[in-house]
Amino acid sequence: MVASLLGEGQAVADPVSVRFSEGSLHGFLSLRGPDGRTLATGDLLQTVAAGRVTARLVFTFRDGSVSEETAVFSQRGHFKLISDHLVQKGPAFPRPLDLAIDVSTGEVTVRYTNDHGEEKVESERMELPADLANGLITTLLKNLRATSTTLSMVAATPKPRLVKLKITAAGRDSLTIGGVGRKALHYILKVDIGGIAGVVAPLIGKQPPDSHVWILQEPVPAFLRSQSPMFADGPLWQIDLIAPTWPSR
Predict the structure, then answer these.
(1) CA-based, 20 to 30 A from 44: which of 1, 52, 168, 239?
(2) For residue 18, what is the DSSP state?
(3) How sure is the predictor about 1, in pLDDT bands with cuts at 50, 70 and 90?
(4) What is the pLDDT of residue 33?
């Protein structure tokens, strides 16, 4: 999702207030392609120590590829990103990527392999806003009070750039859990590139597609599903919660 964003811009939204504090957890996920075929299984490992939350999301692909993102953030009144590190490598990703963000220093470093197989490094010191959402999207959506907002993200294009992420609630979709009917709030996430790049992008096919996230809100919010690209010009891949499967005996 981060790697698919293009262009530059500056979001002006305030950081999201903490309604539900994050704690330690281990979640199990599946990643499917547009044809419904399972591409990878994932683990979300989250711990809390010294007032900081560390969330590590790892997808292990059947073809040997790996996507791993580690976000560290605080939750004192508002969610605030401290650091984020995204690594994508293997045949599932056309361009291997290593994106590191240090919010305290503003240092953003992108390591990637270009079309000629050469390893490149782009490093830049940026003024990172307080509403930076890299690695925190589902956490922030679980805590939103408004039906729409705009957040900031750093995108690797491969040069690091700031873009806006416009989030809108599109209504409640029906589903069942254990045969019981429920409704999940459906969010649509649209990248706003901004500037000249934003005007040109749709014309040259570089505007990222909208992403979708479903959050079960009551009585305590929970992530259920997302559909978003994981790399530049990539298709929409679907992430779902999965449950353990036991032998019949």
Answers:
(1) 168
(2) P
(3) very low
(4) 97
What letter represents residue 148's amino acid? S
Alpha carbons 117 and 193: distance in angstroms, whole number: 28
Closest listed residue to residue 11, CA positions, set 188, 161, 213: 161
Q: Which of 195, 191, 187 is nearest to 232 (CA)?
A: 191
Q: Is 137 helix (H, G, I), strand (E, B) or coil?
A: helix
What secondary structure does DSSP assign to 194-220, as a single string?
A: -HHHHHHGGGGT-SPPPEEEEEE-SSS
Please report the pLDDT score of residue 193 as a whole number.
73
| The two structure tokens encoding residue 64 | 């040997």
DSSP letter, residue 91: T
Tokens of 25: 């957890």
Round to whole Å and give the CA distance between 208 and 193: 9
Instruction: Pull the structure tokens for residue 69.
Output: 């993102």
Stated length of the chain: 249
Q: Residue ranges of the alpha helices (H) in the chain?
A: 137-141, 195-200
Q: Taking the model in full, what pTM does it have?
A: 0.88
CA distance 168 to 164: 13
Element (H, E) at 127: none
Positive or negative, the CA dihedral 191, 196, 202, 205 is: negative
Instruction: Answer whether 46's CB lies under 8 Å from 23's CB.
Output: yes
pLDDT digits over 176-193, tens only? Answer: 999 999 999 999 999 987
Give the pLDDT confidence of 47-82 residue by residue, as tens digits: 999 999 999 999 999 999 999 999 999 999 999 999
By DSSP bridging, strand 148-156 and strand 160-177 are: antiparallel
